[in-house]
Amino acid sequence: MKKNQWLDHVILIIGALFMIIPIWLIFASSTHNPNTIISDGLQWLPGGNFTSVYTEVWNKSIGFSSDVNAKSMIINSMIMGLGFAIGKIIISMMAAYALVYFRMPFASLWFWLIFVTLLLPLEVRIIPSYEVVASLGMLNSFSGLILPLIASATATFFFRQFFRTIPNELLEAAQLDNAGPIRFFLDILLPLSKTMIAAIFIIMFVVGWNQYLWPIMMTTDESYNTIVMGIKQTLSDISQSSQPRYDHAFALVIFAMLPPILVIIIFQRWFIKGLVETEK
Amino acid sequence: MKKQLMTGVLATLLSSTTMAATDITWWHAMSGQLGETVNTIARDFNASQDEYNIKPVFKGSYVETLTAGIAAYRADQAPNILQVADVGAATIINARGVAKPVEDILVESGYGFNNQDYIAGVRNFYADSNGKMIGMPFNSSTPVLYYNKDILAKVGVDAPKTYEEMEQVASKLKEQGYATFSQSLTPWIMFENFKSRHNLPVANKNNGFDAPATKIMINTPDMAMHFNKLKDWSDKGYYKYYGSDWDANQTPFEKEQVAMWLGSSGSFGGLRNRVDFELGTTYLPYWQSMNKDAGRTFIGGAALFAIDGKPKKEQQAVAAFFSFLTSPETQMFWHKSTGYVTVTKAAYALTKKSGYYQEQPDAEVGVKQLSLPGGEWTKGYRLGFYSQIQEIMHREFDNVFANRISVEKALNNIDKESQVILSRFARTVR
Amino acid sequence: MEQRQQYTHSALPYFLLVPQIAIIAIFFFYPAAEAVYLSFMLEDPWGQSSLFVGLENYTILFNSTEYLKSVVFTLGFALVVSFLSLSIALLLAVKANNILHGKGAYKITLTWVYAVAPAVAGIMGGFMFNPHIGVFTEIFASLGWDFSLYTDPFDATFVLVLVSVWKQVSVNFIYFLAGLQSISYAVNEAAMLDCESDRRRFWTITFPLLAPTGFFLLVINLTYAFFETFGVIDTLTSGGPGGGTTSLVYKIYRDGFIGTDLGGSAAQSVVLLVLVLALTWVQFKFVEKRVHY
Known about the structure:
The structure holds three protein chains of three kinds. Chain A has a domain at about 70-220: Orthogonal Bundle (MetI-like fold), CATH 1.10.3720.10. Chain A is about 70% helix and about 0% strand. Chain A has helices at about 5-30, 35-40, 50-60, 70-100, 105-115, 125-135, 140-150, 155-165, 170-175, 180-190, 195-210, 215-220, 225-235, 245-280. Chain A starts with a helix and ends with a helix. Chain C is an all-alpha fold. Chain C has twelve helices and two strands, in the order H-E-E-H-H-H-H-H-H-H-H-H-H-H. Classes of the chains: A mainly alpha, B alpha/beta, C mainly alpha. Chains in contact: A-B, A-C, B-C. At the A-C interface, helix 1, helix 2, helix 4, helix 5 and helix 6 of A face helix 1, helix 3, helix 4, helix 5 and helix 7 of C.
């Protein structure tokens, strides 16, 4: 097995380069004069503007009122990411548990009803969704920002698939012990699902974090601006602006990447830990 | 110290209770530096008086802003002012009762309105067939020709005024190994403003102003001739078609791969900033054989629409803002900071007086071109679902310049498909 | 698949399902129903006039060669993107699981990209493959490939595939790695005794065990390629050149948002929904049956 390891490393390094080169280019370019980026494209080597660009972007207020800046937008994106991920995990675990572990009339109907929501992205239903949120009085609120996004079945689908891989014997044993459905869920299923929860959390957090179109449609209060909205607001191209600040936009892109990466790193740990525990 | 604090508190209390300023919102699509200029104008307006308070909100791209406006309108949450791009103008103007004409809003609130105050090429673009202005032209520009003085001097030619001259210049440039020109936004430059420059109709029903148009004048001898020439020039290497992307056609000019570029009159600032050669700006070329007295072009960009059905006080606030926005000082500020043209004659005169055009002669070209004599067909166009038609044009022209289809076939395709789209739109207009 | 052991509880499952069903009823089925309604109408987008046109919106679609082209493009694009994202991710996950040293570093670099917002990915691609200043355009040119994002449909498709795959590999990698790690060492060890070749062991033991993860990812990747790549298309090619990269969802977005033809775009949504539903049903019918849990 060991003899082939160098080949594995080569493949992994190629893969890692494929993934990381674009991000490196964005980072290196963010430290150059924007005119260099416009005239010569992305840069392989960093330029000299690192401190000035990054401090300016961090402190600059973006928007009409002066209290919208990188920090406030990152906080909003954080709320979006956490709210979305936690809300979705709770709701979808409950639904998936019901679908897999209960004998229910129309079980497959319920499943398909939930499943089709994968198939019509928010962009397509944005005008009616806006109407609903407006009539519920949820414009300019985090609940209005988060709830419509939860209406998609990815996580439910995932938990359903996962629950079905859990051996039947566990439930039989639990039933022999007279453990009710809630006990079974809390004592057995939940600990077993740790890894999957971590995986889903990563994914959902990033989805929530990166929201742009929905927030820009339904908020008019700048205090709800998310970081991706900030990027879009900073970004303009040469057809619109004599001096597009690509350096600022790219620096914001780098800032916007850091918190999700932190989440990925933390939850990957949890991932492994969860796995090691189930091994025992 | 304490006393000072007290008066401060008192002052804020007073200002917030007695003046209860009327708040209005303005949804716009101006990002980057443009967005910052928008914010400055709004702040200046708020500081200039204390009855009204405007709040600009960035709503993404033009498309996203319009969609947000539509969604909000349908749910009774519309802003007071919505920025709509030129291609979307027909959509909002033809929907009865959505936008309140700026002319009405200004007159009802006691500000005068005379459309002759506006520059000729600006005046009618967002107006109805009687010339009543519906949308307030905001960020406006028009296509002009930029040229590389160094290259032209090396070859010993002047910047072409006509496409005939362009052809002659091109053969000389080719001898020296240069490609002659590229252009950004084919529908805008080679169809809409081409028509205006030659005083030819863009569409039936008086360019769509009298009633929803059902046919655009794309499959016509003038278009066939022009696009066959472009195709021929493209084959000869005179004209470079880099696709429908704006920047992809502008960058080669900046990098001296083409000697000229047809683009927006507002682009000079960035060009000056980045290029290492002597930049020249002049009017959009025309075919002398088609119209020897070629006239003005019209504007592109976007306008501000006042949404109807708002309380009177808010409409007064909108009027006050429009009045502020069109004041010569604000217009000059906008013109100088962004490169977009001034929309009023008074602002143009003021800018001229300020000596700005001595330092920035390029800035004046657009305004002057918009003020050239015009004719029957130089007002603009009103075409519903027009961005779908523009997409079709891009698709077909991509195919023409990639040798996948003939010019005749492409023009015919655009004509046929656009008729379907236009007649659909006509049926939505009541 | 054998019958699972299940609870028979009368109220609890409904209680558990209610939040999910309520949210999708309000934010999904109501808007979807409105889309179906709109697909029979011709409306101005502001809702000021509304005309029942029967099946007109549908007949226009079915008579349009561009629409047919778009269907073909979408299916091809979705298959290529899903296949590449899955196989690259699987390869990397297997290798990352195999090696002894540097696991953590690879894992982080390989998942990092997931943090990039889709809207940003398109812009990055636009720079990298720009015809004049793109670093990759220059590399391709030096290899003799006259690459042109904005005028050659093949090159444009190539970039769209590349950027879409790049965005998706990380997610697949996370799940495959989780799946691989949960396949117990015991199974692996037993397998090692039985068959000598790494490759054989992978295809006969590991791969079938990964099948549930793989099936799930297949569905997720197809929906990604169908629905979520339109943002990349919007920023990179706008459906061009020559309309060659207009996916179905991008067309819906373009006609409905950019073109403000709500009726026509709603009809497209309905057709798309039916199409994808049929595809998914087939997937479930034929693929899931073979997947052993």
